[in-house]
């Protein structure tokens, strides 16, 4: 092991994957009709969750990690719902739908005007989270004693082009949040979003235009 590797805890930075990210002002933002909420309370959400599980089995979600540059720092694009809920763009797969096709469909629905699915470059899966029971929190592992998990969420790196228009439902906001603010900030962003900076540690960001 060379001296450089010892100083970096045994990690060889030359093995890092480089990802281009572009300035926030390279993108355009607009709004469209609100997406109606299916749940009016936590009880409603839980009942719908249980009904869907009984009909279709484990729920599989796919979510996108979208990066931009602002103030010379990498920022994550996050959807804010009802002023207190923060989520990565994405959603539930249809039965038999592939991860890539489902994520493109959901991104088009949440972030595009014409729902053109061809503009999203879905990259590698960064992590998988599991819900072992209906009312438990999600965790980045599946306990060996859990034979029938209720929900699975997969995070994918989605590479943005140099410029693009985002069209967001009126009942949501698309925020750019610095990774340093998100890191381990479970209280505000929840366990999945707050884990994204660590999942991105194997990448080197090439910030274009600065």
UniProtKB/TrEMBL annotation:
The alphabetized UniProt keywords are: mRNA processing, Nucleus, RNA-binding
Q: In which compartments does the protein localize?
A: Nucleus
Pfam families in the cross-refs: NUDIX_2 (PF13869)
GO cellular component, alphabetical, reads: mRNA cleavage factor complex
Q: Which GO terms describe its biological process?
A: mRNA 3'-end processing
Superkingdom field: Eukaryota
Q: Where is this protein primarily located?
A: nucleus
Q: Which CDD domains match?
A: NUDIX_Cfim25_Nudt21
Name residues in a coiled coil: none
Does the keyword section mention Heme?
no
GO molecular function annotations of the record: mRNA binding
The answer to whether UniProt assigns keyword NAD to this entry is no
Q: How does it assemble?
A: Homodimer. Component of the cleavage factor Im (CFIm) complex.
What does this protein's UniProt record list under function?
Component of the cleavage factor Im (CFIm) complex that plays a key role in pre-mRNA 3'-processing. Involved in association with CPSF6 or CPSF7 in pre-MRNA 3'-end poly(A) site cleavage and poly(A) addition. NUDT21/CPSF5 binds to cleavage and polyadenylation RNA substrates. The homodimer mediates simultaneous sequence-specific recognition of two 5'-UGUA-3' elements within the pre-mRNA. Binds to, but does not hydrolyze mono- and di-adenosine nucleotides. May have a role in mRNA export.
Its family remark reads: Belongs to the Nudix hydrolase family. CPSF5 subfamily.
Protein's UniProt name:
Pre-mRNA cleavage factor Im 25 kDa subunit
Q: Which organism is it from?
A: Vicia faba (Broad bean)
């Amino acid at each position: 092991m060379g001296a450089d590797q010892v100083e970096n805890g045994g990690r060889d930075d030359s093995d890092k994957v480089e990802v281009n990210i572009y300035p926030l002002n390279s993108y355009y933002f607009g709004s469209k009709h609100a997406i109606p909420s299916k749940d009016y309370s936590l009880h409603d959400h839980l009942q719908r969750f249980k009904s869907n599980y009984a009909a279709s089995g484990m729920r599989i979600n796919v979510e996108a990690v979208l990066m931009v540059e602002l103030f010379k720092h990498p920022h994550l694009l996050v959807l804010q719902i009802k002023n207190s809920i923060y989520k990565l763009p994405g959603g539930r797969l249809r039965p038999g739908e592939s991860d890539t096709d489902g994520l493109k469909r959901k991104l088009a629905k949440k972030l595009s005007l014409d729902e053109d699915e061809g503009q999203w470059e879905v990259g590698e899966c960064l992590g998988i989270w599991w819900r072992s029971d209906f009312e438990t929190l999600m965790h980045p592992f599946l306990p060996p004693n859990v034979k029938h998990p209720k929900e699975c969420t997969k995070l994918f790196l989605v590479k943005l082009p140099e410029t693009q228009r985002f069209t967001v439902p009126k009942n949501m906001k698309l925020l750019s949040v610095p990774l340093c603010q998100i890191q381990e900030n479970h209280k505000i962003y929840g366990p999945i979003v707050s884990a994204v900076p660590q999942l991105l540690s194997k990448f080197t960001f090439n910030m274009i235009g600065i």
